[in-house]
Design a protein that fits this description.
By secondary structure, the chain is mainly β. It is 0% helix and 52% strand. The protein starts with a strand and ends with a strand.
């Protein structure tokens, strides 16, 4: 079993920056990809970015060039650095993780979510 805990959400003005973190605990050696989904009010949950066990990264088109995903050397914490934030980035951001050999489209584990609000 794996437990994911997010931190770092909050309120930021348009054009600002914010970093959210996700700490994994438990059987972390079973994990493949880790990353982030988000869900805005009235919209479906969507993938934002993920990083694989081999350190490959993938980003949604809407955040490419603005968001950067990274991971600590111990591979227990994943970070999402968000720059040039827009009001449309407002959402609950969920950390997610897959078991090895599983696809990112169906994460096996979820965090509780952290609110990111971009507003003046």
């Amino acid at each position: 079993q794996v437990h994911l805990v997010e931190s770092g959400g909050g309120l930021v003005q348009p054009g600002g920056s914010l970093r959210v973190s996700c700490a994994a605990s438990g059987n972390i050696f079973s994990l493949g990809a880790m990353g982030w989904y988000r869900q805005a009010p009235g919209k479906q949950r969507e993938s934002v970015a993920f990083i694989t066990s081999g350190s490959s990264t993938n980003y949604a088109d809407s955040v490419k060039g603005r968001f950067t995903i990274s991971r600590d050397n111990a591979k227990t914490t994943v970070f999402l650095e968000m720059n040039s934030l827009k009001p449309e980035d407002t959402a609950v951001y969920y950390c997610a993780a897959t078991l090895r050999a599983r696809t990112w489209t169906s994460p096996d584990y979820w965090g509780q979510g952290t609110q990111v609000t971009v507003s003046s």
